[in-house]
Amino acid sequence: xxxxxxxxxxxxxxxxxxxxxxxxxxxxxxxxxxxxxxxxxxxxxxxxxxxxxxxxxxxxxxxxxxxxxxxxxxxxxxxxxxxxxxxxxxxxxxxxxxxxxxxxxxxxxxxxxxxxxxxxxxxxxxxxxxxxxxxxxxxxxxxxxxxxxxxxxxxxxxxxxxxxxxxxxxxxxxxxxxxxxxxxxxxxxxxxxxxxxxxxxxxxxxx
Length: 207
Prior knowledge:
Low-confidence stretches: 2-6, 8-26, 32-39
Number of domains: 2
CATH architecture of the largest domain: Beta Barrel
Number of strands: 10
Mean pLDDT: 83
Largest sheet: 10 strands, antiparallel, barrel
CATH topology of the largest domain: Lipocalin
Helix content: 10-25%
CATH class of the largest domain: Mainly Beta
Strand order of the largest sheet: 1-2-3-4-5-6-7-8-9-10
Radius of gyration: 27 Å
Structural class: alpha+beta
């Protein structure tokens, strides 16, 4: 009786061992299928910045001394024009304003969309430096865009995390904020705010 029981247990163990690779393979296949489905269903964001195309009046607020505890802001106005490039997969924005001290600021933003990563890279330059800075990279989710990079900033010129947030993008008054973080994103200090108001007509959106 004991021998028969022993043989039955050996047989059952062998069956389980034979089934194990099939089970593992099935789990692996399911995991790969899920991953493929997630990749294939990643939303196409190449038109997420279409709201920016056209002509704008812009009102800006700038924190005078970021990361020092200062609460002194300056405000000024300007204009911007954004045009489509590569059928909207890229954009070029020209930005002009006069700062409170009377100096003119001429800026340019180049926005590039990567269809592989589904992310935008935002490059900023001014006529004074004539050079592109590091890209701020991110994407839109639920109508809000978040973009990040690391730059040398603040009173000590140390590396800080930079965040851009775009909101109100379905209106004719989109809102932009730039923030710095010295603690890896745990806390943020807003230091630049831009509110836009569309000017012109819908024909501007086609250029």
